[in-house]
């Protein structure tokens, strides 16, 4: 009798331990406590399809040294559908070549906002990779094939990004969140130990502070954050890091506004060419080059 009870106890402990290992492996980016909470809300079968980290996810971070802009290529290695976040026009050929080399089909080229420091590559990529569509937030006022509003879902293969409105740097800023992969692409709303400026393009320090604290800092601490820029060679951060170490956004709202009001930053070097071009999906530069080349002949 004692042996039977011991065996049952051993079996119970073994199954419990095995379950925990399965949870850790399947919900790789989630904390164990979060996984247990999920199991307590209807069992694993209802949640794992959307929350489990898939092994067919492709991720590549690219860089433009002139504007210190990061471009992100995300793809589904099974369906071969891919999206590109914040492409730069000077690197459109580079990005198109990489996408072709990897066997991907570009579904969407997306902007986190209407940039002031470079011209987007979305328009040029549409000509290089026919069938791809340009995407930007509706509030930006820029032309695109698809205009996002808060809460929209962008799908590519079995993966998806949640479009979360995070205005403040500009009125049309979006953060793209992958809950499956525990990552978010914050644009200029939140930088590594910093944030985007708020003194142009209908920017607002109060709005930016609210966006970051309510839309980004409310994500789990272990979520990895990928900004649109970095000027010190850093490539990524996390929600937990920024909540603890960001020198601006750890302050009170009043202190944050005061900091932003006294940055005294220079006028953006490329804003006068970037904004008009980006209002028309980056096609302004293409048109200018076309006219120039035609006259040259």
TrEMBL record:
Signal peptide start and end residues: 1-25
Positions of the Metallo-beta-lactamase domain: 68-229
Catalytic activity: S-sulfanylglutathione + O2 + H2O = sulfite + glutathione + 2 H(+)
Listed GO biological process terms: glutathione metabolic process; hydrogen sulfide metabolic process; RNA 3'-end processing
GO cellular component, one term: mitochondrion
Entries under Pfam families matching the protein: Lactamase_B
Enzyme Commission designation: 1.13.11.18
Main subcellular location: mitochondrion
Classification via InterPro entries: Metallo-B-lactamas, Mito_Persulfide_Diox, POD-like_MBL-fold, RibonucZ/Hydroxyglut_hydro
SMART domains xrefs: Lactamase_B
Reported cofactor(s): Fe(2+)
Subcellular location: Mitochondrion
Coiled-coil regions listed in the entry: none
GO MF annotations in UniProt: metal ion binding; sulfur dioxygenase activity
Subunit text: Homodimer. Monomer. Interacts with TST. May interact with RELA.
Protein family according to the UniProt entry: Belongs to the metallo-beta-lactamase superfamily. Glyoxalase II family.
Protein name: Persulfide dioxygenase ETHE1, mitochondrial
Taxonomic source organism: Leptosia nina
């Amino acid at each position: 009798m004692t042996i039977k009870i011991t065996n049952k106890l051993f079996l119970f402990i073994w199954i419990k331990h095995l379950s925990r290992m399965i949870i850790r492996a399947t919900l790789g980016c989630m904390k164990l406590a979060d996984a247990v909470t999920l199991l307590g809300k209807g069992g694993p079968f209802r949640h794992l399809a959307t929350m489990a980290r898939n092994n067919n996810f492709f991720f590549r971070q690219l860089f433009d040294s002139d504007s210190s802009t990061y471009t992100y290529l995300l793809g589904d290695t099974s369906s071969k559908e891919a999206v590109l976040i914040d492409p730069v026009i000077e690197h459109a050929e580079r990005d198109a070549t990489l996408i072709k080399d990897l066997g991907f089909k570009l579904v969407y080229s997306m902007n986190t906002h209407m940039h002031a420091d470079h011209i987007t590559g979305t328009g040029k990529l549409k000509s290089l990779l026919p069938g791809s569509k340009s995407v930007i937030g509706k509030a930006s006022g820029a032309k695109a094939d698809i205009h996002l509003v808060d809460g929209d879902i962008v799908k590519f293969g079995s993966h998806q990004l949640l479009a979360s409105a995070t205005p403040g740097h500009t009125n049309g800023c979006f953060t793209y969140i992958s809950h499956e992969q525990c990552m978010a692409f914050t644009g200029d709303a939140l930088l590594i130990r910093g944030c985007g400026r708020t003194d142009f393009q209908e920017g607002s320090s109060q709005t930016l502070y609210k966006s970051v604290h309510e839309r980004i800092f409310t994500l789990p601490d272990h979520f990895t954050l990928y900004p649109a820029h970095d000027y010190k060679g850093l490539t990524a951060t996390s929600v937990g890091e920024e909540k603890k170490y960001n020198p601006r956004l750890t302050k009170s709202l009043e202190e944050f506004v005061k900091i932003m009001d006294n940055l005294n930053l220079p006028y953006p070097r490329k804003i006068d060419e970037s904004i008009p071009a980006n209002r028309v999906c980056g096609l302004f530069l293409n048109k200018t080059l076309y006219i120039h080349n035609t006259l040259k002949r």
